[in-house]
Amino acid sequence: MTDFHYAHKNTQEGERVTKTAPFNKPQISEEILSLRQNAFMAEIPVSDDETLNFLTTLVSALKPERILELGTAVGASGAAMLEACSVAHLTTVERDEDFYKAAVGNFNMLNLSKRVTAISGDAGEVINGLPENSFDFIFLDCAKVQYIKYLPRLKKLLKKGGVLLADDILLFGYITGEAEVPKKRKMLVEHIKEYISAVTNDGELYTTVLDIGNGVAMSVKK
Predict the structure, then answer these.
(1) What does the alpha-carbon distance between residue 92 and residue 9 come to, in Å, rounded to a whole number?
(2) Which helix (H) or strand (E) holds 125?
(3) What confidence tens digit (pLDDT) does each residue in 94-112 have?
(4) In this structure, are residues 214 and 15 in contact, taking their beta carbons and an 8 Å threshold?
(5) What is the domain partition of the chain in residue ranges?
(6) Residues 6+ apart with CB under 8 A from 156
(7) Region 21-221: CATH code
(8) Is 222 helix (H, G, I), strand (E, B) or coil?
(9) CA distance 100 to 97
């Protein structure tokens, strides 16, 4: 596997684990399971088991026809969503060229390429070129510092009744006070808090913050 140059996990303290994590394991194919295991070994940013289980359960219930994912990594979560919802088409954006190439290869290996529009580029630039009211479901899992910046545009891309799911919203327990915030993460924590405040006080959204995995915020467009 390619030697990727940045890690997802908190290398000092490890991933945040909730009390419900042992009960929430994703039902995914052996091929996607193997893809995720290889990704974890290489410290590639893929969703933890509990988050992926919630994501696939939600997608299987909602059955969105058009999904937007910001932060493809190597395609594990995107592939799992497509596996959980046979009617869905995935548009997924990744700025890291190595991740993008690996994801395209993995979608091809999993025979999912016809249901995927993979885009290599900066998410902030890409979303400005996408048509409004065109997505039923958006999975936000890219640079956390940009969440608050992207929110206004993502709301426009989302159809009425559509779901915006933001991952890593509790950030290793820094947001809840479970863990002390390192100095280098203080600005990031403030940006995440801004996002949480924005979506929970937005009159156009119904939002709930869930203690799942590293924390998710689920918003529904009114």
Answers:
(1) 22
(2) helix 123-128
(3) 999 999 999 999 999 999 9
(4) yes
(5) 21-221
(6) 132, 133
(7) 3.40.50.150
(8) coil
(9) 5
